[in-house]
């Protein structure tokens, strides 16, 4: 009963507390949900966090967990002052933005940027179970851009659902303890990691055997000792060179040749760290015929020669 009364109190607090509700215009479920968890960070604490060198990059204002949230619905005509992150792990839900109405399924994330008018809620027949958070800070727009989540495309698949929800749980658990500066730093770090993971998942290369970019990456990784041109690689995966180059850069953040070079250097570092092979032998192992050319590439990436790298203490 005590836990239930606390859940009710917190739900009502969010309805009456502007900093917790994010400029709430309409709430259609005020009594809370069985098993819910929620924490609202006081406005004064949030304001301090947004000026701190540690938490100004990303600050959490509130977060929670709503299981089987029947009749859950929120409407904010002017949007929220924070960016809203909702991860659905069960049931279904929906969100409506000026750009349209979107269905939300298990394994999907909804991100609503700050200032975007919106409404969202649980499906009537199969109400969603969600982990959610409101965040602000100077790093949030960059994370949303990296995740390619916009008002036009606010919903995306979460490939590593367990890790993302575990990070939100970590933030929530921390705030359930207290909202001291150190605890808030932990919560903000966890939520920053969660958003970064969503962004990385959005750009990560697929693993399906028919994915040409996944096939291209696998070929480069398994043929580190063989130099291959963009045209040759395009022929192997069945794309034109220009199309491959465009898709590859979007998926990895770099060009095909740069990716190949970094793979070669990764293997070279491993050999330098873990074997007594001479530099010339390592050069040959990773596909370079000219040791001087290999050393030049290695120095460009690492700022030192292979021999100097090997001499450095590590770990």
Topology:
Layout: H1 2-16, H2 18-21, E1 26-27, E2 37-40, H3 43-49, E3 59-66, E4 73-76, E5 83-90, E6 93-97, E7 100-104, E8 108-112, E9 118-122, E10 129-136, H4 140-147, E11 155-157, H5 161-177, H6 181-203, H7 212-222, H8 230-237, H9 241-252, H10 256-274, H11 279-285, H12 291-302, H13 306-311
Helix pairs in contact: 4-6, 5-6, 7-8, 8-9
Description:
The protein is elongated. With 315 residues, the chain is of the alpha+beta class. The protein has 13 helices and eleven strands. The longest helix is centred in the middle third of the chain and has 23 residues. The protein has a six-stranded antiparallel beta sheet. Strands 1-4-9-6-7 form a five-stranded antiparallel beta sheet, with no helix packed on it.
> Roughly what fraction of the amino acids lie in strands?
15-25%
Mean residue pLDDT: 85
Q: Uncertain segments of ≥5 residues (pLDDT<50)?
A: 1-21, 27-31, 205-209
Give the overall silhouette.
Answer: elongated
User: Would you list the SSEs in sequence order as H and E?
Assistant: HHEEHEEEEEEEEHEHHHHHHHHH
Say what oligomer this is. Answer: single chain
In angstroms, what is the radius of gyration? 24 Å
**Total DSSP helices:** 13
Q: Percent range for helical residues? A: 40-55%
| Extended strand count | 11
Structural class: alpha+beta
Straight-line distance between termini:
51 Å
Major sheet: arrangement of strands: 2-3-10-5-8-11
Largest sheet: 6 strands, antiparallel
